[in-house]
Amino acid sequence: MGANVKTIERKGSTPQERFYLLEIFKGMATTFGHFIRNLLDTRKLYVRHYPEVKPEIPVRWRGRHRLTTHPDGTVKCVACFMCQTNCPANCIMIEAGERYDGKTEKMPVKFNIDLLECIYCGYCVEACPVDAIRMDTGIYSVIDNNRESFVIGLDELLKTPGAFSEEEYKKGGA
Ligand code: SF4
Ligand code: SF4
After folding, report:
1. How far apart are CA 141 and CA 118, in angstroms?
2. Closest residue by CA, ligand 2 atom 8
3. Mind listing the pLDDT tens digit for each residue in 31-90?
4. Atom 6 (ligand 2) nearest CA
5. Count of CB atoms situated within 10 Å of the CB of 133
6. When you count CB atoms within 10 A of the terminal residue's CB, does the N or C end of the chain come out lower?
7. How does 54-82 read in b/e, with b if 16+ C-beta sit within 10 Å?
8. Surface-to-core class of residue 118, CB atoms within 10 Å of its CB (0-12 exposed, 13-18 middle, 19+ buried)
9. How many CA atoms lie within 13 A of 128 on its CB side?
10. Which of 91, 134, 150 to mutate to test the pocket of ligand 1 (most atoms within 8 A of CB)?
């Protein structure tokens, strides 16, 4: 059986638009106009001297993850796997273990996130029933020179502090 191919006629292109050179010159004229304007008057030119001047991070901005803790410093995560199940990039790997401090039945003994696979969608944060995972670290620059170091584990996730106070975070509607 042959493939049922539907040919769609391209509409909306005038002969001038089909002759791409004219459109290219129009685009170049716009670019050149901006270049001259900015060259003659730099006051409206917005330049951030990164990395010396860091960008302001709003509370709702999703940065590198962290795991939150109870006031006594113990891990909040109950190893329910909701974040892992909801992760569209399949980049969270949790291993659950027994918990003996009476808080819950389970806790993670392994909690890895592969930052090279992560698409920073925030679904893990939304899925968590106990607010144990957040993306409020304010870390926007994740760089290294080997793939392995982009997989962050439980210790790293627990020791990274949040960039905002609890009030700011809650007010930010996160
Ligand atoms: S931000 Fe999205 S892709 Fe990244 S770990 Fe969370 S759910 Fe997965
Ligand atoms: S971080 Fe939250 S959603 Fe993920 S396993 Fe722990 S408690 Fe469950």
Report:
1. 14
2. 80
3. 999 999 999 988 888 788 888 988 888 999 999 999 999 999 999 999 999 999 999 999
4. 77
5. 23
6. N
7. eeebebebbbbbbbbeeeeeebbbbbbeb
8. buried
9. 19
10. 91
